[in-house]
Amino acid sequence: MYIDTVETLPDTTITFTNGKKIVVLEKEEEIIQAIIQFYRTVNVLGFRNDEEER
Question: Interior CA angle at 4 toward 49 and 18, to 5°?
Fold first, then answer.
């Protein structure tokens, strides 16, 4: 299951590629930052913890 979209509707809603949706307490920006941090942790797309965001 992969994340398709993260939206504020006004609650933060995460929609997955299979169509399932969940509503979370965190704000949209917090979710996006958590995803970026996860990508850095597993070194997806060449993101590393010691590189600055561009």
Answer: 130
- Residue of 32, 12, 30 lying closest to 21 (CA atoms): 12
Q: If you ran DSSP here, which 8-state letter would residue 2 be given?
A: -
Distance in angstroms (rounded) separating the CA atoms of residues 50 and 52: 7
Condensed to tens digits (0 to 9), the pLDDT of residues 4-28 reads: 999 999 999 999 999 999 999 999 9
Residues in a beta bridge with 7: 13
Using CA atoms, how far residue 7 sits from 18, 21, 24, 37, 46, in Å, is 16, 11, 11, 19, 26
What are φ and ψ of residue 32, in 5° steps?
Answer: -60, -45
Q: What is the pTM of this model?
A: 0.72
